[in-house]
Amino acid sequence: MESMPVNWEALDSLVVDFANCERLFFLDSSSSPPTSPPISPSSSSSPSSTPIPSSSSSSSSSYRSRLLIRQIRRSIEAGDVDAAIHHLRLHVPTVLDDRRILFWLQKQKFIELLRRGTERDRDLAIECLRVALAPCALDAYPEAYEEFKHLLLALIFNKEDQNSPVAHEWSERRRFDLAGLLSSILRAHLHAYDPVFSMTLRYLISIHKVFCCRQGVSSPISDLTERLLLEDRDPSATPQESLYEAPPFDEVDIQALAHAVELTRQGAIDSLRFAKGDLYQAFQNELCRMKLDLSILDKLVHEYCVYRGIIDGVSNSPPGDCSSNIECTSSKLSDGETSVNNADAEGFPESYADVISIGESRFASEVINNHENCSISDVNNQETCYRRLRRSRNYSTGHRRRKRWRGRVEELEYSPRSSVLGIPKPEVMGWPPRGSEDTIQEELDCKNLSFSESLKNVEDHKYEIILEMRELACKGMAAKVVEEINAIDPDFFIQNPNLLFQLKQVEFLALVHSGDLAESLKVACTHLGPLASQNQDLLKPLKETLLCLLKPSEDAFTKGTPWPILATSLQVAMGKKFGIEEPQLMRIVRATLHTHNEWFKFQMCKDRFEQFLKIDQLKDIDTPMSSNPAAKALLDDTANGSQITICSSSKMQEDGGSPQASSGENVCDENAILKVMEFLALPRADAIHLLMQYNGNADTVIQQIFS
Question: Is CB count within 10 Å lower at the N or C end of the chain?
Answer without folding.
Answer: C
